[in-house]
Amino acid sequence: MSALPREFALIARYFRPLAGPEGLGLADDVALLAPPAGKELVLTVDALVAGVHFLPSDPPDLVARKLLRVNLSDLAAKAAIPLGYLLTIAAPADTTDDWFFSFAAGLAEDQREFGIALLGGDSAATPGPLTLSLTAIGTVDAGRAVLRRGAAAGHGIWVTGTIGDGALGLAALQGRLADPSGFLAQRYHLPEPRLGLRLAGIAAASMDISDGLVQDLGHLCRAAGAAAEIETALVPLSGPARAAGPSWLETCLTGGDDYELLLAVPPSSEAALLAEVKRATLAITRIGRFLAGPPSVTVRGPDRALMTFSRPGWSHF
Amino acid sequence: MSALPREFALIARYFRPLAGPEGLGLADDVALLAPPAGKELVLTVDALVAGVHFLPSDPPDLVARKLLRVNLSDLAAKAAIPLGYLLTIAAPADTTDDWFFSFAAGLAEDQREFGIALLGGDSAATPGPLTLSLTAIGTVDAGRAVLRRGAAAGHGIWVTGTIGDGALGLAALQGRLADPSGFLAQRYHLPEPRLGLRLAGIAAASMDISDGLVQDLGHLCRAAGAAAEIETALVPLSGPARAAGPSWLETCLTGGDDYELLLAVPPSSEAALLAEVKRATLAITRIGRFLAGPPSVTVRGPDRALMTFSRPGWSHF
What we know:
The structure is a homodimer.
Chain A: H1 6-15, E1 31-33, E2 39-49, H2 60-77, E3 81-91, H3 97-114, E4 117-125, E5 131-141, E6 156-160, H4 165-173, H5 183-189, E7 205-209, H6 213-224, E8 227-231, H7 239-244, H8 249-254, E9 260-265, H9 270-279, E10 284-291, E11 296-300, E12 306-307
Parallel strand pairs in A: 3-4, 8-11
Antiparallel strand pairs in A: 2-5, 3-5, 6-9, 6-10, 7-9, 8-10, 11-12
Helix pairs in contact in A: 2-3, 4-5
């Protein structure tokens, strides 16, 4: 039997060690998953394209971890527990073994951190840029996923962590903004999925912020048939984001790459929310309220004046 | 609220109508799937890249259907029943609305044919070629999936349908081979996933042939720790493939894009196999046997002479 193509050698060397038992050693056409009793499966898919969603010069291990984490962030927003993932890599012919080694090492590191395993995948050649797609699977107790729909007038608008660091990190990596501590670049490269919050029964609606706070808040409004008003003075900014100055505020509010959670919480659940984020040692901040009215997002600046934006958020096309 | 980016309009217009209830109207970050009781989930992912796996001139509806079907073929090989899929589209900026319309129409047609629904997806811009990735999900009765491993010396090697048409169809579409009836091009564009065969308890091992009969048979050998011998005189060829002549035999055996099933069947199960394919109105042919010995594939030509190949099968890199 002649030597196997390079594809199989790469899979055996770098990816088979990442496979969980459901992945059948990546030696079958499929993964076989016995769903845990009483659970629903939560499925999400996100793609990253070199030169579009990450910089071709980004370290491969960080690209791998970001690819995983942007998907885990979607699971976090549903209060799901991650279980595993399937991966597609369309790679240019000149992608080196070193690149695959580092990429797989990044996956391995985050598999350990998040307790997940590779279930399956596909590899393809491409004459274009490196293109990655990842399907992540998690579980929730049946009926307990927190959806995008469910916000209502009177609910508070809450966000975890700090807003805008990822977009500013991209600006820093592109040389448009100083980042002496490297904090902003780190936030761009390695988002922190806010897993582990028990949001069922607390949040009425939830999503993660990936395309910009203003645009993603618009999605919650449309799903609810409600309006939203936020105050920029309340939006939590990191020290480095505050240091960037007010000219970067619009970037923070619309730039995307936050991977923080955006929640609608009834006032009656605020105490439970604060207790839960304290238990999880996370920060959370109320930045506004949902209001009666047709879907719209009103942003009031430091002087409570209405802010408008040249672009509300990130478009994928 | 300003107008939404084009992405959301495209999703709303072309893809939301394809979503099943688990897809939450494509208006959430995730799909929510309640697994049927007593079932295991079967998961597979396959990608197609324009210019690599399909011709940029291929009709978008056929590209969509091929993308679905190459994944359904993997489910068929496990004797699984397809349930739904998640989709990633990385599209160049000049991809037209007409392209998306036709692509979604192809998905809709095959969703009806195979009784499945869209569960979720992601869209991305790319400066490179159109790149598609699809994760398909099916179900099997717990413990009843037919895996790649399980072949043993003495088992017959069986294939459904006819071998080589897809590879010859590509040659025809590239102008290298006459295809007066269009049969070969049709077989390349629109593989027929061999769903519905109740293979559990009949086949000891199963996979679909996507990368060429010889190479894929090598995978069954490695998974089993057994050798295989096939006779080209037994390999089922369609009329147009026979008409192409003996100079195309190597292409038929190694070219890939067959999406027929390759099975290991103990002699004691042959009667049950033949009854089952008759029930499903499929054709099936025994082309050789597994033998004791280290993994290897022996191919005997019309004169029973040993055949060797310049390339055993299709490499993805």
